[in-house]
Amino acid sequence: MENGQLSRARARPGHPAPLLLTQTVHEHRPETGALSVLKARGTVDASNAMAFSEAVAEHIARADRAGEHPVLDLTEVYLACAAAVRSMDRATGVLAFSGRVLPVVQPRPHVREALRAAGLPGVRVHATMASALNSLDPLTLVHSPEARRRPGPPPGGTDW
Predict the structure, then answer these.
(1) What are the φ and ψ backbone dihedral angles of 153, each rounded to 5 degrees?
(2) What is the pTM of this model?
(3) Band of pLDDT at residue 12, cut at 50, 70 and 90
(4) Residue 127 carries which DSSP code?
(5) 120-155 pLDDT, tens per residue?
(6) In 10 A of CB 58, how many CB atoms?
(7) DSSP characters over 39-80
(8) In this structure, is the dihedral angle defined by the CA atoms of residues 87, 92, 94 and 97, taken in order, positive or negative?
(9) Sign of CA dihedral 156, 153, 92, 97
(10) Contact (CB, 8 A) for 38 and 59
């Protein structure tokens, strides 16, 4: 924690904390629509980076199938190596390809700086959950009823 006390995620002095991914929280907010928050805690290092990447990718895929905004809470996560940052890039590649981003909430300062320095196109870092929620657009949900009703270009060509 930032107040000088050790968080529960770093409770074993001298050893990295095990990576724990808590159950996803599903919410519906009138201003943003449905969202799915995956909370992670512990250390992402070379030994578990692939598992972390797979869990985040699955979280994104499940949220997309359910018509929810995926959000990742990294409040109590420590990225121990470059493989940890690359794991975020692998997990969010599908979002970046489609022009979307994964809101990452409240990362510790070193995590925030590592993600910003890496310039991952599928990640957007937010200092607070409120900031992340304000950035969400209900019309960007892939399977939302609003997205299905949006007019698009006519079949077989552009809209002009």
Answers:
(1) -65, 150
(2) 0.75
(3) low
(4) S
(5) 999 999 999 889 988 887 666 554 444 444 444 444
(6) 14
(7) EEEEEE-TTTHHHHHHHHHHHHHHHHHHT-EEEEEEEEEEE-
(8) negative
(9) positive
(10) yes
